[in-house]
């Protein structure tokens, strides 16, 4: 069915937003809308200008026979800053402080709208880092991992704390939690990673970084590679960290007696490139 | 900045897709695009026709002073059937069979594109059931729960198997797993649910339904209500189930010796209304 330009623009926008980081050929759209490639090209020009001016993302043009366009989700710096301010405010409520220097974030981590924005922020930084897989440790990092992976169009693998019958054969390692010094176990299904994969590790909270380091070590068992590490909140107190080169959206500082805390911006904008 | 119709349509589409189940007033769009409400009304008419003909969802018009439009994600029956066929094929690969009558689904459950489609299918059924919260049990149901909740614009609460320091004060119950007959524990943060909430329970896999029943019982402790139950895969063998009125996308049947299995369509279309 031949569609008018207005219809094509609406459908194209929907299609591109739902297929990030995928090359869509001009022929695909040309067939889908029974329209000439020249019209499709013009449409894409309009979509591109709007995505960029409205801060939805970028539209890359790939030339050649297998060419087409690729939508790269990307959050504008202003939007990222505004969102981090909102998140800081939410997390600064005084009744969030829990014993042991933890912060109650369960409600925030349960809001898909926040989670999707956090995912978009992380995906913006790693959009041109050739990520193959996003990895996280159960439980609270899972929504963040999926939100980022969804924008990067890559699968997620979830590290478990113990062996599960539903995972088939597994590879496990022991690691020492950086803050509690306890020995813990990490398990990953044997068939979950192919050698050489470039892995983005994501978690919700990082104290000394023991879990992050454990995940990085687990990757070695699969001959896979750390392509990046990102956390929502890191704590300021426990330093130096056991890992380097991690991105953090927010930083939590605690008073000596763990009675008061401050939430600041993390190192996000050190990694952010326009 | 005054925008042209083509730009408005692109931005509107993006905005609506990212704000499902939210009333957006005409004034909001009128201010956003510095355009007359009459033009915005026409734009929305075009968007509505296209969303409906392309199977992206519905656009409801809310009349009156606080009126506007609401985007309701909805999957067309043809698309839902095609997706279920694809999923069945993927899950029918013979090397997925695990000891104990389980199916290896970890890879499928790690693909955001599948997860988002499953979420859209579940959200389509419950789109007019006044859902307040989606609930799931850690670990594997979490991505599905977030995908559905994201489309329904409601928060997710995650039931844990043990008490965590990061959750604050908690409510826990014991329950008997329907298939293994083991006594297990479920924990939920005390501040996670308000009385009277209508809860959609989502999980990845259901054998006898003990976990589902446990979650329903846990809701009673919060004076909350089961508004629906949905699983990706139910097993055919263990019947009758401990719960009624659950929706399933797929059904798994196993031979006596658990050497072969068949994946069929679940009861999804009994719940689906056009």
TrEMBL record, chains A, B:
<dbReference type="InterPro" id="IPR010078">
    <property type="entry name" value="PurR_Bsub"/>
</dbReference>
<dbReference type="InterPro" id="IPR015265">
    <property type="entry name" value="PuR_N"/>
</dbReference>
<dbReference type="Pfam" id="PF09182">
    <property type="entry name" value="PuR_N"/>
</dbReference>
<dbReference type="Pfam" id="PF00156">
    <property type="entry name" value="Pribosyltran"/>
</dbReference>
<keyword id="KW-0805">Transcription regulation</keyword>
<feature type="domain" description="Phosphoribosyltransferase">
    <location>
        <begin position="108"/>
        <end position="253"/>
    </location>
</feature>
<dbReference type="InterPro" id="IPR029057">
    <property type="entry name" value="PRTase-like"/>
</dbReference>
<keyword id="KW-0238">DNA-binding</keyword>
<feature type="domain" description="Bacterial purine repressor N-terminal">
    <location>
        <begin position="4"/>
        <end position="73"/>
    </location>
</feature>
<dbReference type="InterPro" id="IPR000836">
    <property type="entry name" value="PRTase_dom"/>
</dbReference>
<comment type="similarity">
    <text>Belongs to the purine/pyrimidine phosphoribosyltransferase family. PurR subfamily.</text>
</comment>
<dbReference type="InterPro" id="IPR036390">
    <property type="entry name" value="WH_DNA-bd_sf"/>
</dbReference>
<keyword id="KW-0804">Transcription</keyword>
<comment type="subunit">
    <text>Homodimer.</text>
</comment>
<dbReference type="InterPro" id="IPR050118">
    <property type="entry name" value="Pur/Pyrimidine_PRTase"/>
</dbReference>
<dbReference type="InterPro" id="IPR036388">
    <property type="entry name" value="WH-like_DNA-bd_sf"/>
</dbReference>
<protein>
    <submittedName>
        <fullName>Pur operon repressor</fullName>
    </submittedName>
</protein>
């Amino acid at each position: 069915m031949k569609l008018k330009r207005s219809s094509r623009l609406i459908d194209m926008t929907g299609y591109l937003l739902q297929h990030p980081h995928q090359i869509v050929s001009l022929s695909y759209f040309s067939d889908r809308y029974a329209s000439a490639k020249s019209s499709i090209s013009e449409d894409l020009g309009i979509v591109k200008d709007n995505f960029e001016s409205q801060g939805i993302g970028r539209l890359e043009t790939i030339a050649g026979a297998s060419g087409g366009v690729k939508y790269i989700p990307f959050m504008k710096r202003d939007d990222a800053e505004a969102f981090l301010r909102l998140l800081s405010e939410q997390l600064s409520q005084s009744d969030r402080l829990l014993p042991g220097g933890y912060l109650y974030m369960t409600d925030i981590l349960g809001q898909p709208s926040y989670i999707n924005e956090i995912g978009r922020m992380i995906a913006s930084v790693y959009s041109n880092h050739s990520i193959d897989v996003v990895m996280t440790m159960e439980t609270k990092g899972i929504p963040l991992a999926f939100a980022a992976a969804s924008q990067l169009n890559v699968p997620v693998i979830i590290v478990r704390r113990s062996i599960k019958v539903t995972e088939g054969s597994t590879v496990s390692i022991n690691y020492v939690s950086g803050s509690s010094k306890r020995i813990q176990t990490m398990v990953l299904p044997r068939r979950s990673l192919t050698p050489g994969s470039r892995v983005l590790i994501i978690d919700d909270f990082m104290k000394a970084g023991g879990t992050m380091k454990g995940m990085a070590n687990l990757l070695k068992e699969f001959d896979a590679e750390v392509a990046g590490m990102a956390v929502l909140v890191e704590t300021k107190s426990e330093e130096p960290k056991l890992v380097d080169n991690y991105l953090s959206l927010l930083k939590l500082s605690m008073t000596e007696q763990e009675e008061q805390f401050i939430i600041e911006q993390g190192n996000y904008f050190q990694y952010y490139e326009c």
